Every structure is written in C-alpha cells, then in structure tokens.
Amino acid sequence: QVQLVESGGGLVQAGGSLRLSCAASGSIISIDAMGWYRQAPGKQRELVAGLTSGGMTNYADSVKGRFTASRDNAKNTMYLQMNSLKPEDTAVYYCKATVISGWNRKLEVWGQGTLVTVSS
Known about the structure:
This protein is an all-beta fold. It contains no helices and 11 strands.
C-alpha cells in the first residue's frame, strides 16, 4: 500500500503565504511524476502544478509567478509554496503521484486533500 498525506493548509489573508507538503509512504520503489491539484466548491478539480521525476515543473496560468512546486526525492516529499494568495485560490488542494511500488506495479495515488482558505 502507498499513501500520500498532505499538510500545511489553513486560513490566510489575501496576500499571505502558505506552504503545503505531501509525504508519500509505503511500499515505494520510486516516484515518477507528481502534481498538485485543487478543487474549489462547485468547480472541477484542476491541475495547479506538475513535477517530473527530474524536477521539471509546469504551472496553471492562474498561479504562475506566485506558486512554486518542488520535491525532495530522498524524502519522497513534494511541496507547494504559495505566495501572494488570492481569495480565488480557496480550494481543497490534493497531491497526486505516480508511484512504482512492489512487483514493479505502477500506481496512481491521491492524497486526502488539505483545505486552503484565503480571506479578502
């Protein structure tokens, strides 16, 4: 079994910052692509930032220049630094990882989500 656990969400005022973490645990041989997604009330889940195993990143246009995704492969952990937060960033944030597990199984794993609320 492989689990992803997010942390770092909370309530912040507009213009503030938060740092989300996503730690993977379990039967992990390696982690390929990782990503941060978010889902606001009444909206579809959307990709916020993606990271390849080599560290290349891509971002949604709405967060470019404000959010920075990174990963620590030694710790099987991914981060999302969110600066200059806006009320429209309010959402549940999820991490997702493509994990190579035991018996070389390739698993798509989601975290449980962490709520980020940005007040105006």
